[in-house]
Amino acid sequence: MVRISRWIDKINIRLRLTLLFAVLVASIMLAFSLSVYYLYNQFREKEFNERLHNKAITTVRLFEDVGGITEELLHAIERNDLTTMYQEEVTVYDSQNRIVYDSGKNPYKITPKLLAHARAGHDFSLRDGEKEIVGVRYVDKRKNVLVVVAYAIDLYGFSKLERLRTILFTGWAGSLLLVVLAGWFFSGDALRPVSDIIEQVKNISARNIHERLKARRQKDELGQLAATFNDLLSRLEEAFSSQRSFVSHASHELRTPLTIMMGQLEVALLQKRTVEDYQQTIKDAIDEVKKMRDLINGLLELARINNDIFQLHFRPLNIDDLLWQVRELLLTQFPLYNIQIEFDESQQEETEFKIKGDVALLQMAFLNIMENGCKYSEEQRVNVSLLAQSDNIRISFTDRGIGIAEEDLPHIFEPFYRGETSKSRKGHGIGLALTQRIIQLHNGKIWAFSQLGKGTQFVISLPYPDEV
Ligand code: ADP
Questions:
Q1: Which residues line ligand 1 (CB under 6 A)?
Q2: Against a cut of 0.70, is the pTM above it?
Q3: Which of the four pLDDT bands, split at 50, 70 and 90, describes residue 275?
């Protein structure tokens, strides 16, 4: 059994479908043929028994009319018998189980018990090999209870039965062959789209990932499978291309400070310089190295956060406390920044802004947005407001700075993307990508609204602890 199931596992779907189909149809047809054969045999037996019965009655009546076994009786029987059956023989038993008439030489041996049974009114029919026997009770004019036993072989019926068997068997075997062929053909036809898809998928690799699968019929299950696979390919292609551009952007961003540094150092080496000149060159080089360090830190953070095995340390925290901490941190670095934190006036004083989150990550996210607000506005000011809503906490960061152009707005969360207007300011375009990922990890959402020249607003919503 195990071996059969292992073998079935190995064979392909087409063969399996064909075999299943063939076994199913063959069994139905076999059941049909067997019932036809059985029913026909029943019918034949019934008909033959009726003939035997008639024969028995006719014979005993003649026997009674003639009044004993005489030449006349034998002639009468021969005259009346137009349909003699093969090896037929009729025997008449009297009430003492004695044979009073026998048409042949081999009376069928009937047990006295069976004779008594028939005499009691239960006619019987038996089968012994090819012979079929009937026993009939007959009461003659003198009220003697006789039992007439007639037997014969239904040669004609059996030959018809045999013919029927041959027809049914050859019909069954022939149609089985047709069923296997038809099953093989139809399952091949039904599975061709699958093989098509397999062939097409085999030919897709990283080099031609832009290619898409074509399904013959778009609406059926295989069409849907192909469409799903195409969606997957699109996502993969996007991921590939963003990875490729990520790498080229990262290399570019790292190469720029290196090139500047090389230039400065080479110029310094061209001739002898004063100590002040050398000090200035070293300071400039350190500035470039700092830029590189910031970029590499940002990249590492992004890689760490995008890594699935990255462990989050979620714990309950107060958003308002966190915002104040970030404000302090930023002000120690940039004392000229102006950061206003306010609560929505409609909020009750004791409202708590508790969520569950990773302190270090959320600090990083808020720091990026606050810093951007100050960095990209002349007045270096950002307003932070907090609002506890029914199902989340909403934090808005609003500045009246340079704003973001409409065409830049959809891309600002992409790594390395920097708006046209902001290129004059320090930065690598990693902060918002990082921030968005951090907010996503907290099951939150982030939106940006902006008008060029007027200002920008970032809105973050974070769910309450039980929804995290
Ligand atoms: P960076 O500030 O280092 O360039 P970010 O990822 O923080 O990188 O921001 C991406 C881009 O989004 C910025 O280059 C800038 O064009 C735009 N941006 C973000 N915040 C603001 C803001 N408050 N005002 C105007 N532009 C902004």
A1: 368, 372-373, 376, 399, 401-404, 408, 412, 417-419, 422, 427-433, 456
A2: no
A3: very high
